[in-house]
Write a structure and sequence with these properties.
It is a single chain. About 10% of the residues have low confidence. This protein starts with a helix and ends with a helix. The relative contact order is 0.09. It is mainly alpha-helical and about 600 residues long.
Length: about 600
């Protein structure tokens, strides 16, 4: 076809002859791509049928993996559209040249056709709309690309599945969007509850007769409790999503009740118990696994971005609402019924009690069990009855499963990089949030309201950025987006590390770097969450060590390390050197993460 196109350019004597010849070659190109599509689909269906009928000898994974990575492979040449794209571009250029208002010379016309130097791009777009053959070529190219992608995906999945499985467990229908929104709302309220006590925790500690530095323990015990409870919830989600969500909501509600009762009872232990109960009610691992199990693969990155946006908005809403309530109450203290005390330290707890009661009611009424868990619950009795007939020796398989978890995590680089990405982004993000009041207070003279407003603006800014990330996920692969966000994370940390003699300039550098860190880390979390759910092997995805648990543990560990890093560095380094000392090792970790991802 390329030779025919070259001959047509040299031999055509009129625009009409050139246009007719281009259309004829375009029709042949459409037939060729149709032939390619038939062969690609046939290969996939034949291999799939073989593996279904011959269960003991699976062929698809080995056949595709040993042929797809070789340049001389005929299988790879089926999906190689480079030459097809070149011919299609030549046809489009020939039609554009043929429809020109002035007659072109042979040399100029051939140069236009083969190198695509069109004088007017708008006329070229008009040609693509006017010529039906160009639309047919684009449609067939898309169909061949889709068929090739399905074949590659089938081969990849066949190499990842356990013996005896021929296809992955598919998402059984689309869950109601109200369930997805309630899942996101759970994360929003939890992150809001996590940070709403941050501005007033020092005051609360002093009112209970403790130093203001005790506020670190008030805030820090929540992620520690969440890290412990995540294991139990991970196993629970193998059977249900509705029950653990209701249970965790009740725990957080109880924790806030303890929080508001600690002041009238003058009990620091009750205060810590309330924050521990809030951490034990952390359901982010449940929410992440719900997204991985109920969303379609092509929609998962966008839904994950929405999930991260909900958490970021909650992070911003917590300090923002706390600042508003503090401005409304001031230093006033109201004696409520039953001996309760309403002031700037306890009013966040009262607000969260009301919000969690409302959310618990909505979950109880509108959140339904997804289809994948309904079917599992319906067949659980049958599985138990079958298990009673099996020999007792088969119970030792649990030990093999645990060994499989360790071995898979040890050799699967994709899972390792995703978990490291979770740890680093949470480490850097939590470090910059925790250190912002200290650094900006010293460099720029910011107060509590200024810091709260800054964090609120960052949280609101993340919302549109994650919508953009959801759109980009349909145009680019997750690995490319991860690398781009990691580069931005490195830029933000570098801006924070760079300090000059002027406090004002250094403060501006810190504020800009903190903004870049917070936004890039939030967008990176959504992409990492989606990619981890896709690369986690099925043997882990269906057990306790699923993608939701792994990401939650890695992120919570990074969050905890970020908080304690501020405490440790702040105890040994003066405020002028706090940012440089704390973020320099984090910058090295960001560069290491980028190198491993690439």
């Amino acid at each position: 076809l390329a030779a025919q196109m070259g001959s047509l350019i040299r031999s055509s004597t009129s625009n009409a002859e050139l246009a007719d010849g281009c259309r004829a070659i375009g029709a042949e190109l459409v037939k060729l791509m149709s032939f390619l599509e038939i062969n690609i689909v046939a290969i996939r269906k034949v291999l799939k049928k073989h593996d279904k009928m011959v269960g003991s000898q699976q062929l698809m994974g080995n056949f595709l993996s040993t042929r797809d990575d070789k340049a001389e492979s005929h299988l790879r040449q089926l999906s190689a559209l480079t030459g097809v794209s070149a011919i299609a571009a030549s046809i489009a250029g020939g039609l554009t040249a043929a429809r020109g208002s002035s007659q072109q010379g042979l040399v100029q016309r051939s140069h236009t056709v083969f190198y695509g130097r069109f004088d007017r791009k708008d006329s070229f777009n008009e040609i693509r709309q006017a010529e039906a053959i160009l639309s047919e070529i684009d449609e067939m190219r898309e169909r061949v690309s889709v068929a090739s992608g399905m074949l590659s995906t089938a081969g990849f999945l066949a190499t990842q599945l356990e013996p005896g499985m021929t296809e992955p467990v598919a998402v059984e229908g689309r869950e109601p969007m109200i369930c997805t929104y309630l899942n996101h709302a759970t994360t929003f309220f939890y992150m809001m509850n996590y940070y709403i006590v941050l501005p007033s925790s020092g005051q609360y500690a002093q009112e209970l007769g403790m130093p203001a530095s005790f506020s670190g323990a008030i805030v820090g015990c929540t992620p520690l409790a969440a890290q412990i409870s995540a294991f139990a919830y991970s196993g629970w989600t193998n059977y249900s999503y509705r029950q653990p969500l209701l249970f965790t909501t009740g725990l957080v509600l109880l924790g806030n009740i303890f929080y508001v009762l600690a002041l009238p009872l003058q009990s620091s232990w009750l205060l810590l118990l309330g924050r521990l109960s809030t951490g034990l009610g952390g359901s982010r691992g449940i929410s992440r696994r719900y997204i991985a199990d109920t969303s379609r693969a092509q929609e998962r990155t966008a839904i994950s971005a929405m999930f991260v946006s909900a958490g970021c908005v909650g992070t911003a809403a917590g300090p923002g609402i706390a600042a508003i309530l503090s401005g409304m109450l001031g230093r006033e203290e109201i004696n409520a019924p039953f001996g309760l005390i309403l002031n700037t330290a306890t009013v966040p707890g009262f607000l969260m009690v009301v919000l969690w009661m409302l959310h618990f009611t909505l979950l109880l009424v509108f959140f339904g069990e997804p289809a994948c868990r309904k079917n599992k619950s319906a067949t659980s009795n049958v599985k138990v009855s079958k298990a009673t007939r099996q020999p007792l020796i088969e119970q030792d398989k649990s030990e093999d499963i645990q060994e499989g978890v360790c071995s898979i995590l040890g050799r699967d680089r994709a899972v390792q990089v995703c978990l490291l990405s979770y740890f680093v982004l949470k480490l850097v993000q939590e470090g910059v949030i925790t250190s912002t009041p200290l650094v900006t207070g010293y460099l720029l003279g910011w107060g509590q309201e200024d810091t709260g407003s800054f964090v609120a603006v960052l949280g609101l800014l993340v919302l549109p950025l994650n919508f953009i990330m959801g759109y980009l996920s349909r145009e680019s692969d997750d690995r490319t987006l991860m690398c781009a966000m990691q580069v931005m994370l490195c830029v933000g940390v570098l801006a924070v590390v760079v300090q000059v003699r002027s406090n004002t300039v250094s403060g501006i550098n810190f504020v800009l770097g903190a903004g870049i860190i917070y936004c890039s880390a939030s967008m990176l979390e959504g992409v990492t969450m989606s990619l981890l759910s896709k690369v986690t092997p099925p043997s882990l995805a269906k057990g306790i060590c699923n993608s939701g648990l792994l990401s939650t543990e890695a992120g919570t560990l990074g969050r905890t390390c970020g908080n304690w890093l501020v405490v440790i560095v702040g105890a040994h380094v003066s405020l002028p050197h706090l940012a440089q000392t704390m973020f320099l090792p984090e910058l090295m970790m960001c560069f290491l993460l980028l190198a491993l991802t690439r």
